[in-house]
Design goal:
Layout (H helix, E strand, L loop, with lengths): L5 H7 L4 H8 L2 E3 L11 E3 L1 H20 L4 E2 L5 E3 H7 L1 H4 L1 E6 L6 E3 H8 L10 H10 L16 E5 L3 E4 L5 E5 L4 H6 L1 H7 L6 E10 L14 E11 L16 E4 L1 H5 L6 E3 L1 H6 L6 H17 L6 E5 L11 E9 L2 E12 L1 H9 L6 E15 L4 H8 L3 H14 L8 E6 L2 E6 L6 E12 L2 E8 H12 E6 L2 E6 L10 E5 L6 H14 L4 E3 L5 H10 L4 E5 L6 E6 L5 E5 L3 H10 L4 H6 L1
Parallel strand pairs: 3-10, 12-14, 24-25, 24-26
Antiparallel strand pairs: 1-2, 4-9, 5-6, 5-7, 8-9, 10-11, 11-21, 12-13, 14-15, 15-16, 16-21, 17-20, 18-19, 22-23, 26-27, 27-28
This protein binds one RNA strand of 74 nucleotides through helix 2, strand 5, strand 6, strand 16 and strand 23.
RNA sequence: GCGCCGUUGGUCCAGUGGUAGGACAGUGGCUUCCCAAGCCACUAGCCCGGGUUCAAUUCCCGGACGGCGCACCA
């Protein structure tokens, strides 16, 4: 598929979506009465409802329908967790500012580009400063020398202190993922030690962004919806058949490094077979995500799956694809699907106290012979003195390596260049049978991680259109019924003939049936339709006096109307909401 | 963090060294009207701090916030 017409999309993207968002209560800058702080947004009534619907749709798809487990972990997290996860180092950027042109550069990148070093990021700042001086490095922009310029670090995590003493450092989590990794020892018990199992979490994450931009697209506090799928990479396979009908617009790394924009449109199975996507689980979630995005209102013409370039991968990822939406002319990451291998669990196993492995029982116990030694230390001690312990270790190593060395009367081992000879009978050599019933494995993790605010914003941007209806311009949000804040607006045509009372009754009947309903009797009927169009309400129903007992349903996108019995409203809307009935068919009937 | 530009009712804008005006939206009324109709009335605003000045929304400096570019961006 070609995406050659970005510029035309740029043109039709509304530049005043944030104006509509403010005016109609989707989202707006927080704390404006106090001047506001960049990067923080409040969802208004419409936005909070839309966001909740997106989250509910996510939960339905990635938790309920997948049979996964949802948890709710704290946002404040002790420092040790991020030492283990790598965020204390990995989220720490080193910047150096050019004294000539004022440009800021990643100091570690400047050093890496000019030297053989590949991991300057892990060095302390004074060493990076020293390297800049040693190699007399200059600004990549203007050529001015960077020698003597201070290298500043800042960590993108919000720091806080825990408790009255303030002596325990904590951080606001930069991702919800660590909560699921840290609690793995309990979660695996809950999952009865069986893979695959997924743990999901929807919640806020915090990043002290240098430069928050573009409304909800880069905020300092934002909601994430993350799923950690714990799998045994040797055995567990996803149900690719279930997503066989999804086609993936793939933009692999090698295509990005080439000239044009070459997209591959493949099914998940094809993507795996052709080696484009490295792994069935990645392909599975690419497909599940793509179908889900379409359901919540992402325009598939402005959607792609982009593979991370090798240098772009996060510290924990072995492969990663971003789901991207074209918004305001730019591609925005709305989800990252990362293969995190066993990185996180292994790190927590190393730094933490609990067990981050699973015991996998073999189908059949496996018996193996193992050579062991049990040296007679009452012989080795007097004979070899202080070297006796090392000799004993060397004997075990030799037994593992070459048990035939114990065939003769004497065994010879070398320790620190000295040769020691031990009578075989003093080594306690034996070959014994060991039965293994299973093994401890560290599950691998495949992580689909969604930025909820980015999804909400992209859905709004893709839904927003300016229409012309009978010569009048009309702002409309073509939100899918699945996420629209309000499902139906109920209006009396006039405020006479008892119509307001009837309409209020209809509204409360619909509410009782579980619909999100807005009642409105103010202004002209057209004005009320436009209000609902602007907040994306898919249906309106108008009560009039004639003929009695009927109402008119009006559909947002076509503005077509159809008359139904008042008594049928609940049933009709239920079918429309469930997708069992198309409005067009209702009109034709 | 740097550079450029900006900040005036809820929203979008005009304007001024003597504290402001429009449009749209909103509310009430008339109209009883199926796609932002009309009429009347009402509500509601100069981002913050400092400086210059008799007087600052206006000029100057700084800050905050926003937009764009650079840089950064699991």
């Amino acid at each position: 598929m070609s995406f050659g017409t970005w510029t035309s999309w740029r043109r039709c993207m509304s530049s005043d979506l944030s104006e509509l968002a403010r005016r109609r209560g989707f989202f707006f800058q927080s704390n404006e009465a106090y001047g506001g702080v960049a990067g923080f947004y409040t969802y208004g009534p419409e936005g909070a409802a839309l966001k909740r619907n997106v989250e509910d749709a996510w939960r339905d798809r990635f938790v309920t329908k997948e049979g996964n487990l949802e948890i709710d972990a704290p946002t404040v997290t002790p420092e040790a967790v991020f030492e283990a996860s790598g965020h204390l180092d990995g989220f720490d950027d080193m910047l150096v500012e050019c004294p000539g042109c004022g440009e800021s550069h990643r100091a570690d990148h400047v050093v890496e580009d000019a030297t053989d070093l590949e991991d300057a990021e892990s060095l302390p700042t004074d060493e990076v400063e020293a390297l800049i001086a040693e190699h007399e490095l200059a600004c990549p922009e203007c050529g001015e020398s960077l020698v003597g310029q201070p290298v500043e670090t800042f960590n993108l995590m919000f720091e806080t202190s825990i408790g009255p003493g303030g002596d325990q450092a904590g951080y606001l989590r930069p991702e919800t993922a660590q909560g699921m990794f840290v609690e793995f020892p309990r979660l695996k018990e809950y999952a009865r030690n069986q893979t695959p199992f997924g743990v999901a979490q929807i919640g806020a994450g915090y990043r002290n962004e240098i430069s928050p931009r573009n409304a909800l697209l880069r905020a300092r506090e934002f909601t994430m919806a993350e799923l950690e799928m714990f799998i045994d990479p040797e055995e567990d396979e996803p149900d690719l058949d279930a997503v066989a009908d999804v086609t993936l617009p793939l933009y692999p790394a090698d295509a990005q490094e080439g000239d044009g924009e070459e997209y591959l449109t493949l099914t998940p199975t094809e993507a795996v077979e052709e080696g484009v996507v490295a792994g069935e689980w990645l392909a599975y979630f690419l497909a599940r995500s793509t179908a889900w995005f379409e359901r919540v209102g992402i325009d598939m013409e402005k959607y792609r799956l982009r593979q991370h370039l090798p240098g772009e991968l996060a510290h924990y990822a072995s492969d990663c694809w971003d789901a991207e939406a074209l918004v305001d002319g730019d591609w925005v990451e709305i989800e990252g699907i990362a293969a995190r291998s066993d990185y996180d669990l292994s790190k927590h196993a190393k730094y933490g106290d609990d067990s981050f492995t699973l015991f996998k029982e073999y189908d059949e116990p496996v018996s193996t012979e193992r050579a062991t030694v049990d040296p007679d230390m009452s012989y080795l001690g007097p004979e070899f003195g202080g070297a006796a312990g090392d000799v004993a270790e060397a004997l075990q190593a030799l037994a593992d390596r070459d048990r035939s060395a114990f065939d003769g009367d004497e065994v010879t081992v070398e320790v620190d260049g000295e040769t020691y000879t031990v009578p075989t009978e003093q080594t306690g050599f034996a070959v014994e049978e060991v039965t293994e019933h299973g093994e401890h494995i560290t599950p691998h993790v495949v992580e689909p991680a969604f930025g909820v605010g980015r999804v909400v914003y992209s859905v709004l941007a893709h839904a927003h259109e300016t229409d012309e209806v009978e010569g009048e311009e009309r702002d409309v949000l073509r939100l899918p019924a699945a996420v629209a804040p309000t499902f139906v607006g109920v209006f009396p045509l006039t405020d006479q003939d008892g119509l307001p009372e009837t309409a209020r009754e209809v509204a409360s009947t619909l509410r009782a049936a579980g619909f999100d309903v807005t009642y409105d009797d103010s202004g002209s009927i057209g004005r009320r339709y436009r209000r609902q169009d602007e907040v994306g309400t898919p249906y309106c129903v108008t009560l009039d006096a004639d003929p009695e007992g009927t109402a008119t349903i009006r559909e947002r996108d076509s503005t077509e109307q159809v008359r139904v019995d008042v008594d049928d409203l609940v049933g009709t809307f239920a079918e429309l909401r469930a997708g069992e009935l198309d409005f067009e068919d209702l009109v034709d009937a």
